[in-house]
Write a structure and sequence with these properties.
11 helices, TIM Barrel, 329 residues, globular, alpha/beta, 18% strand, 11 strands, two-stranded antiparallel sheet
């Protein structure tokens, strides 16, 4: 069962353009925990497509400075590029440092021209988009077995192991694995979306997404729960998360513009205004709280917030002071 709470997403790519430093990110995580407001801290992941402080290394540093908050990857976009045995050992080591507080956000990543810089990873690693679903599903299954079993033998379409024991084992024999997916309409059909939600209902411990409307989130979350029931699982044990960009301030246009500029530096000039208006929550504390409450009302258990601003600490302070009192306790 997932306890609803707020999560904080750290901009670990921001160290590349001067928005923050490695030390400031660790300190921000510690401040988030001491505030008593946030129940989890998250970092993004990429290898070559969107360089940043490496996710597992950063989370390990944060694990030594925190005691209560859960620690997660939102999401492990490089998962289908990573060797499952090495990833099992790395994540188990992190889970030991964190004393069982980890959540792994599994993600297909992407390749090909439509993914922009993701094409570089596809070329370097030789892993095209085709077949990544099978690769991800097998890796999720393998991680769980390597974490809980010895002498693992596995004969999949992608991975084949014989008598492998991965050590150390994690603090928690089954660290939760949430599956991140966001097939975009209109390019993605209802069938594609249904298959993505079926994967979550069958394999995931939770659902992660970003940049979708409240109604679309509610629709997909219901699908995931329905598929969990079909798979013989209790949907009440699953969690759900949406990754939101936040900038709190008195002027809506100014805060939106600041957030858009931050995200342009962070990801490149790839998002149009309609996309950003869905993803970014900006403006007064009342306006920010209203939009977060809307996702919570349709079943989001963990709204994960990244402050789309170079003033991370001041945004955190204002959010805690002015927005949190307007949210459900």
């Amino acid at each position: 069962m997932v306890t609803p709470h707020l999560g904080l997403s750290l901009p670990n790519r921001g160290v590349l353009f001067g928005a923050t430093t490695a030390g400031e990110l660790v300190e921000l995580a510690a401040r988030a925990e001491s505030s008593g407001v946030f129940g989890s801290v998250w970092v993004g992941d990429s290898i070559l497509a969107k360089p940043r402080l490496e996710a597992i290394a950063l989370l390990s540093g944060i694990a030594t400075r925190t005691r209560r908050v859960q620690l997660g990857a939102i999401c492990m976009a490089s998962m289908t590029l990573r060797d499952p045995i090495l990833l099992a050992i790395q994540w188990a080591s992190l889970d030991l440092l964190a004393e069982g507080r980890t959540i792994l956000g599994a993600c297909l990543g992407g390749a090909g021209a439509s993914m922009g810089s993701g094409a570089l990873e596809s070329e370097v690693y030789g892993i095209p988009s085709a077949g990544r679903v099978t690769r991800l599903e097998e890796e999720v299954t393998l991680l769980r077995r390597l974490w809980s079993e010895d002498n693992v033998t596995f004969d999949g379409q992608v991975y084949k192991l014989a008598g492998v024991t991965a050590l150390p084992k994690p603090h928690n024999s089954r660290p939760p694995i949430w599956i991140a997916t966001n097939p975009k309409r209109p390019r993605a059909s209802d069938r594609v979306i249904d298959r993505a939600m079926e994967r979550i209902g069958r394999l995931g411990d939770g659902y992660m997404t970003d940049a979708i409307t409240v109604n679309e989130f509610a629709f997909r979350w219901r699908l995931a729960q329905e598929h969990a029931v079909k798979a013989g699982r209790d949907p009440g044990t699953l969690g759900s998360c949406i990754h939101l960009m936040v900038n709190v301030g008195d002027d809506v246009e100014r805060t939106f513009g600041e957030a858009a500029e931050f995200l342009k530096k962070y990801y490149g000039d790839i998002f149009d205004r309609p996309y950003l208006e869905t993803w970014v929550i900006s403006g007064s504390p009342e306006r920010v709280a209203e939009r977060i409450r809307a996702y919570m009302a349709v079943g989001c258990t963990i709204p994960v917030l990244r402050f789309a601003s170079s003033s991370q600490a001041s945004q955190l302070d204002r959010f805690v002071r002015d927005v949190v009192p307007l949210l459900p306790s």
